[in-house]
Amino acid sequence: MSASTKLSTSVKALSLLATHSEQALNSAAIAAQIGGNASKLRRLLSLLSKQNIVAARKGKEGGFVLQKKPDTITLQDIYCAIEDQKAFHLDVHTGSAEDEQQNIRTNNFFIDLFSEIQVEIETKMKEITLQDIIEKTKS
Amino acid sequence: MSASTKLSTSVKALSLLATHSEQALNSAAIAAQIGGNASKLRRLLSLLSKQNIVAARKGKEGGFVLQKKPDTITLQDIYCAIEDQKAFHLDVHTGSAEDEQQNIRTNNFFIDLFSEIQVEIETKMKEITLQDIIEKTKS
DNA sequence: GTATATTGTTGCCAATACAGTAACAAATAG
DNA sequence: CTATTTGTTACTGTATTGGCAACAATATAC
User: Which of A98, B45, B55, B122 is deepest in the core (most CB within 10 A)?
Assistant: First the structure.
């Protein structure tokens, strides 16, 4: 699952939970609503629960509930919870180059550049809350 | 090959060509210098030649030469030449959701967001020239 | 004109990663 | 105790990727 798909799937699930705050929704119910596989969803939601974005309850009447108010959950929070890898990262290319030092310097240039871009993306994602998305996607 | 690896490999090759403007370098020579496989390099360089960033000459004493001045080649030019796909794009998730309309609205939200981010990245890449990178990675 | 060198492209094969599902132990509520 | 649900692992078929090798097309040198 690509990072972008994980992110949008997570947001769909969290939006649904936000509108059903009175009861826990289990993975099968969420999957039916937003589409996709319950097992796959559980894998995502368990990551979100480790960051206390949702709470997971096992057993009868169990399922998932939102643990924070939607206007305190940012896209950045969600992204970090589900994805360990940076959005922009260099797969450093280490070949047996004659000028290995030049290779390293160029790699470092790109590592720095991608870090800068990463910061900009994170800044943007910090400014967007789940609440924002819910309002923008209201019918 | 990931987009980031393609980009850094291309820059390494172009930097090398920039310092050998008097003669054409063939793919084997470039591969020896920067590391990696000659055949793979040719695939990248042929894409760059289609955008007239390098010129390719076949036959004896053939190879590749830079076709533009380093300070007129931007990272954005290179990226577009070698990668058709946007850096940030949503793999839209189309499941059989009960509320398909909500799904679509959420997907559209992310498509818009990623487009914005894409524009920012492109802006950044347009500001960086091959010349800049050569100077910054000088030993 | 001929021989030679080089690109540009295709095909192949192994290795790796991924998607989707199923299965099941652990936990929990009633 | 029983039923249910999470959390995780395992499995299986399918794409994707990487690295080469091969070769036709092409251009150059002589």
Answer: B45
- For the domain that residue A106 is a member of, what is the CATH number? 1.10.10.10
Q: Which of A4, A15, A87 sits opposite B90 (nearest CB)?
A: A4
Q: Residue B124 has which token pair?
A: 């950044």
A25 strand-pairing partners: A64
Give the pLDDT of chain A (139 residues) as one tens digit per residue: 888 899 999 999 999 999 998 889 999 999 999 988 899 999 999 999 999 999 999 998 999 999 999 999 999 999 999 987 667 777 766 666 677 889 889 999 999 998 999 899 999 999 999 999 999 999 7
Q: How many domains does chain B have?
A: 1
The pTM of the full predicted model, rounded to 2 decimals, is 0.89
Whether A54 and A17 have beta carbons less than 8 Å apart is answered as: yes
* CB-strand contact A40/C, under 7 Å: yes
Q: Tell me, yes or no, if A8 comes closer than 8 A to chain B by beta carbon.
A: yes
